[in-house]
Amino acid sequence: MILVTGGAFQGKTEYARTQLGVPHENILDGEDCSFDAVQTAECVKTYHQLIKRLLSSGVDPLDFTRRLCIENPDAVILMDEIGCGIIPLEKAERLWREAAGRAGCIIAGQAETVVRISCGIPVIIKGAFA
User: Fold this and answer.
1) Dihedral through CA 52, CA 45, CA 65, CA 1, nearest 10?
2) Are strands 113-118 and 76-80 parallel, antiparallel or unpaired?
3) What is the pLDDT of residues 75-122, one digit of tens each?
4) Among candidates 76, 66, 68, 72, which has minimal Cα distance to 44?
5) How far apart are alpha carbons 119 and 40 in whole angstroms?
6) Per CATH, is 2-126 categorized as 3.20.170.30?
7) Which run of H or E residues covers position 37?
8) Proportion of the chain above pLDDT 70, given as a percent
9) Residue 130 pLDDT greater than 80, yes or no
10) Which of 77, 91, 73, 18 is nearest to 48 (CA)?
11) Higher-confidence residue: 51 or 130?
12) For the chain, domain boundaries
């Protein structure tokens, strides 16, 4: 498993395509893909948005993420860092940020490689160059 993280619009998808060789058509979007498709996907972008959808559907995002790590250990997961900045007033937003952060920790713990992208520049923070 490879986790690519960083702020919004920093080049995560482009990195997956150019450096990891994931074809555009093999990248699922966490904003609208089926939950089942994630378990066999080559790559899932906006995983943090998938977490929000899981919460809204009453699905435990941490159990879902643990299952993903077991069932799809070769997946490439792209997710925005959403825990920085001002703490949201709405409880649902705070719970989403916490769940996304915890899910990211689960994925990073299982991943062979973790890459943080900032301004299009990849920094390997775990594992070898991917």
Assistant:
1) -160
2) unpaired
3) 999 999 998 878 888 999 999 999 999 999 999 999 999 999 999 999
4) 76
5) 30
6) no
7) helix 35-38
8) 98
9) no
10) 77
11) 51
12) 2-126
